[in-house]
Amino acid sequence: MTCDILNIPFEPIEVNLPTKEHLTADHAILMYLVDKYGKDDSLYPKDLKKRALVNQKLFFDTGILFARLKNMVVSVFYEGATSLSEKQLRDVYEAYGFLEEFLTRSKYLAGDGITIADISAITYVTSIVYVLPLDAKIYPKTAAWIKDLEQKPYCQKYNARGTALLGERIRQAFK
């Protein structure tokens, strides 16, 4: 999505999670791409305080959101789980709570404009939500954030299909 936003030519490559293709050395580096190709610093601010907020949310993204999704994926793809454990449920609801708290302070995770923190986080959040739906009455800010980002052309083009495939694979295991 970041390459699309920055108009960087690239070749999308589908990754097969069950065969562990995601563990290869190839990976995206959002901070580098924005620093090198960004026309401005809106996606990853140069101002140290603003950048620290983006970094904080990127660390949340990798340490909390990715970890929650990874636990679901590992339990389904590699351990044969047929439902989420109580701990997994608690962990996901905790992550939803963190998101809601962040989004009570600003429209997006690190301020009033979309940053690479939002771009990265939406991929994990939409996959998690596909498996464990988010209650918009309990998490209204998070639901609005998801809806807003899902309307972006780059999100529709690059996130929707993968989210649906991953989410459906996990849900099928839970039947």
From TrEMBL:
GO terms for molecular function: glutathione transferase activity. It holds the Pfam family GST_C. This is Glutathione S-transferase 10. Keywords: Transferase. Residues 47-174 form the GST C-terminal domain. It comes from Operophtera brumata. Transmembrane segments: none annotated. The keyword Transferase applies. GO terms for biological process: glutathione metabolic process. The keyword Transferase applies. PANTHER family: GLUTATHIONE S TRANSFERASE D10, ISOFORM A-RELATED. Gene3D superfamilies: 1.20.1050.10.
